[in-house]
Design a protein that fits this description.
14 helices; mRNA transport; Alpha-Beta Plaits; Nuclear Transport Factor 2, Chain: A; 3 domains; about 475 residues; five-stranded mixed beta sheet; alpha+beta; Leucine-rich repeat, LRR (right-handed beta-alpha superhelix); single chain; globular
Amino acid sequence: MAEAHEGPRGRYVPYAPRSGRLANINITVKREPGERGGGAGRDGGRRSWFKITIPYGKKYDKSWLLSSIQNLCSVPFTPVEFHYDHNRAQFYVEDATTASALKQVSRKITDRDNYKSLQNELKPEEIEQLKLCMSKRYDGSQKALDLKSLRVDPDLVAQSIDVVLNQRSSMGVVLRIIEDNIPELQSLNLGSNRLFRLDDLAELPLKAPALKVLDLSRNELKSERELDKVKGLKLEELWLDGNPLCDSFRDQSSYIRSVLHTWGVGQSPGTPRDPLRPRDPRDPQGPPGTPVYYSVYDSSDRQGLLDAYHDGACCSLSIPYGPHTPPRNSLNEYFKDSRNVKKLKDPTMRFKLLKHTRLNVVAFLNELPKTQHDVNSFVVDICAQTNTLLCFTVHGIFKEVDGKSRDSVRAFTRMFIAVPAGNSGLCIVNDELFVRGASPEELRKAFALPTPTPSSSPVPTLSAEQQEMLAAFAMQSGMNLEWSQK
């Protein structure tokens, strides 16, 4: 990043750039004397304006350029008087904090096409693939479209199609597809798409006038003022949990008052979901250890588990060696990823087999054999609990449902470490999976129908300490008391 400067400075001019050359976009910052527009700053003093200059900025599409800068900038900013001066793009920002944040972005935006316009326009064939992807995510019976974490959709990733919903071009294509194909849409999930502003959703009330449910959870919305841009919607449900704006509210009532004020009297979006309350236990992002979590894990696509994991989560798989371990080839799909450090001495392989970041974790889980878990076999045990951490294990049985080992029954132990996820309950920071062959006793009991319990059966008595632990675990995990006691 160039330092703030007081005058023009020389720069290299690539007279004959080579094909495929990488060019890092430079941003310079200069403090401007005097006032622009007059008046006082936010603190009541005189305003301090800073000129932001992007050399060769005229070569880029304005929307793409500003969006790319905002994606990397740590604070939201409003460009004032955006204009071109010869080949330079220039605009002004008001305060030093914003100027400093913009300075940190310099040379982090890469142009791979020799100063060509880098607007992320989808090609016609890519739009057709996006339509197919959206059709798979549409539930006609509920008139619901789930576009959560769209950029990492396996179908799009497999074809190297990059759909970034916080860029105007991608969001515009999605809205056109909605308008042309499903204008009757009633529920739209845009969660986990790194949306930091809602300008590109301004036409949503026209594209989907029947929309009643809008899920914007786990995005980067910093101010409730962003909701002004979609206030034309007549919503019954609005999901905002997991956004930075939720941290500014003291409690549920102040949150609801603020959101209802945005829509105005008579245009209430219904009761917004309380950002301070964990999601409904029926939510697919339910706590690990509940049947709901494993219903997603057992589905054809485990991508739905993305939001259950922390951005910096890690995961590993180990195959123990013991009397019940079947021949190596019967667990071949697991052995190749086993990180049993008792057997694995190579430090490079130890590091490689430890999956880092939630994207890599869920991608790894997606590669494991498809399964069906016997939830009646589950035993959940708390290892440690504090106000900021919950460590627990899940023991149980599952069987594989496809491939060469179809119907093979396995036993597993899974240790989770979870932490509070802002206003969204728990998220996993560590996931250790141990898989082994089922014992004869486990095979006999696997997937057996539970025997009805006679009403005269004695109810086990828990100590006061056990009851306190049970209540705490039920509250943090979202399970009911019966499941928490298992």
